[in-house]
Amino acid sequence: MPPTPPRPLTLRDVSEASGVSEMTVSRVLRNRGDVSEATREKVMHAAKSLGYVPNKIAGALASQRVNLIAVVIPSLRNMVFPEVLAGISSVLETTDLQPVVGVTDYLPEKEERVLYEMLSWRPSGVIVAGLEHSEASRAMLRAAGIPVVEIMDTDGTPVDAMVGISHRRAGREMGRAILKAGFERIGFLGTKMPLDHRARKRFEGFTEVLAKSGIEIADQEFYSGGSALAKGRELTQTMLERTPDVDFLYYSNDMIAAGGLLWLLEQGIDIPGQIGLAGFNGVELLQGLPRKLATMDAGRREIGETAARIIAARHDDPEAEYEHVVELTPKIDFGDTLKRW
Amino acid sequence: MPPTPPRPLTLRDVSEASGVSEMTVSRVLRNRGDVSEATREKVMHAAKSLGYVPNKIAGALASQRVNLIAVVIPSLRNMVFPEVLAGISSVLETTDLQPVVGVTDYLPEKEERVLYEMLSWRPSGVIVAGLEHSEASRAMLRAAGIPVVEIMDTDGTPVDAMVGISHRRAGREMGRAILKAGFERIGFLGTKMPLDHRARKRFEGFTEVLAKSGIEIADQEFYSGGSALAKGRELTQTMLERTPDVDFLYYSNDMIAAGGLLWLLEQGIDIPGQIGLAGFNGVELLQGLPRKLATMDAGRREIGETAARIIAARHDDPEAEYEHVVELTPKIDFGDTLKRW
DNA sequence: GTGAAAGCGCTAACAG
DNA sequence: CTGTTAGCGCTTTCAC
After folding, report:
1. I want to staple A148 with a disulfide (CB 3.0 to 4.6 A). Which of A137, A160, B56, B270 is the partner?
2. What chain B residue is nearest to A105 in terms of C-alpha separation?
3. Which terms are listed as keywords in the entry (chains A, B) (predicted)?
4. In terms of domains, do A179 and A289 share one?
5. Which residues of B are less than 8 Å from A101 in CB distance?
6. Among chain B residues 57-116, those with CB within 7 Å of any atom of strand C
7. Is residue B334 part of a domain?
8. Global pTM value
């Protein structure tokens, strides 16, 4: 006799095995309504021993409810996003909602596809990184009729709600701190920015503040792809060869800043006596470097938590009032590489 | 007039807007069967202008097909797993399959919950990290009746198929290389291993080879949690204070090895003249360190690609023959910290 | 406390 | 090439 084809079990199977109607089995399995202890046990036993796994597809279709929250981020290879995710998960774990992650590789067209794909599963909410989306993406989000929280950035107008920091302001603050510390020949090193809007905004805020003090960026250098730590070394070397008299280097993220730091120390350059340094993000990695790098913590975990809390609250009560704009304040950390005294 | 409640659009709406039957609309939207160019255009136009997003829940229930592949990994905070994911995605992107990620935090009970949750969406396949699962998890995987590929490790018996490296063998090879280079007072530093089975297996293979040469681990030190780079420093310092005469340090991963390297260099210790070093994983980060750290590349990307390829092939043809065991060969990279000459 | 009927939005299968 | 019919497996609703 050939083995039974592995047809997935259905409620009916559990119903037959337990001698209880499908409806009651369903009630037991969902903990809904009153069921006598006797039948509950019969059902549980049958379900367990059969190894029944409910079909959420059918359940979702029938109930018009899906406990999924779509989370759309540019990348998983940048530690920033897993940290946001951790914040989201920690909050959603206290509810019956579940995050589902989609990755866009920083490409608006891919973001559009990913959103379409995810929305077609009718999630109960969307958390998406950034405020810059294609018009079609915005339209989809609006039309979905579900809570949408855009995160990480507040320099712009959200489709629905946004939680994050102002990167323009962050750039300005770092600029002020650097100027206040007395640095004047300042170089900027970062990713090529056409698609990294947040880095661009920081850059804009940064140069704006310098300009107000009549200072211009002494030099700048951009990269894309590759190991960030190694790139940080390369960029730094290139810049120092071209502009040896810089007294400060502002990096668009901590990883390239760390690479720069290591390279500069190897060259015997005094940090921050000779050259001051600052990065952005406050990544955990920094804890192990030879110098405590100045940085700015964007509060990624908190952003994730807050966004998830908004989604969860609106899931519980769609009519509830909620903050459409939550702007967090990034904490500047001077470390050992920004103060000269 | 109050705004229309945002009822999600259905096929029927597109059907009415285009004057074409639901069935034909469905055909157009899925590119199935022959449809005249005229009606195709009518339908496409209607769908676009309405902003229709198909309901995959209903589609999946009706067609009994779900294009999702469940990917279950222990963590996103260890770069290793995003890299595996990248391999999986790169292959699945050439198909109509889509990865959905679940994270277990290295906890068997959470793995069980995550698997249950994911299987209840009836995915077309499962890729899960590791071979160690609860009996209930294995039972679920077997009962699901879908392709299951366990990845990263081949020291054990898979539920269905497995793709990875033998960590015991990896540990043995590294042990042999270290002995061959003439090191004798060898310390081991790593994660607490009860739940990190792969690290444990490497450790076992490693000590086994040393034992054959009559050598015992000179000292060992374990950690859990925290910034790996900082932990690497601490562990290394602790060990050197306790056992100053070690001539080699074998770390269970590259991040703590990097921390150790930085600390040792700061102490003015000659690497590898005085102390040799090796890590594990071949993470990109290493490219930017002051010394090229010896390591072993587990071929994470390739593992992901291979697993995805097996799943995709079996999705195309469930009857197809396939490799149940794919053991890849990790490449040892001597870097600058393992050879003494 | 339990059950029967209807239907969620879509697609397989079959007619024309 | 296009339409009709009958479910997919579950939950909602209403009876009992």
Report:
1. A160
2. B86
3. DNA-binding, Transcription, Transcription regulation
4. yes
5. 101
6. 58-59, 61-63, 65
7. no
8. 0.94
